[in-house]
Amino acid sequence: MLSPSHFIARLVLAALLGSLIGLERERLQWVAGLRTHMLVCVGASLIMIVSSFGFADILGHPNVTLDPSRVAAQVVSGIGFLGAGTILLRREVIRGLTTAASLWTVAAIGLAVGGGLYTGAVAATVLILGILAGLKPLERRFAARRPQVRSVVVRFDARTTSPAAIEAIMAQGGVTIRHAETTAGGEPSQKELHLLTRATADEISEAMEYLETLPGVEHVEIENS
User: Fold this and answer.
1) In angstroms, rounded to a whole number, what is the distance separating the alpha carbons of residues 118 and 109?
2) 68-99 pLDDT tens trace
3) How far is CA 203 from CA 81, 144, 207, in A?
4) Which CATH class is domain 148-222?
5) N or C end: fewer C-beta atoms under 10 angstroms in the chain?
6) pTM for the full model?
């Protein structure tokens, strides 16, 4: 049976390791950030501790057996529902897969801490941080060379330019328009054009730079992914 100090130490360590990964997600302003990752890690750790030691007082009874792995297995499958809540599909663009995966791995770290596998938990945390933060520049370098689906928002003055003119400029720059939707802006003559595009990073960057010089265009941005 765990002593109270060891019990608390495992929960604190789980909170610390979960916070390290949560901070990386918080930095990118994801909803599942610092607190969510800490809660998942601490919760998984507590469940593992309960699974391993919570039923020790009945083990000596006849016909009573204990399989700690059963509770841990339910955490692995159950955390998928929480991760699914972070995955968004907006205008054919899927976002949140990496955050869902980080929640799943944080649960695994919590289980490891709860089971007393401290070296594995710490090593996994370092490795996950390296994957999330260290490989991001490399991922962006490869992404810049291949066409990707991006959501672009153009705010413009309808008295000066039109959605058709904006779309034509994007097409001339090699950007494929897959969907276009115009909504009202803050002022009566102000409009926002939401474009679902497919292009390389260089193509979309050049087209946006040119759009910003177009009369009537007030602001151009790529929606956060």
Assistant:
1) 9
2) 667 777 787 777 776 676 666 555 556 677 77
3) 37, 9, 6
4) alpha beta
5) N
6) 0.57
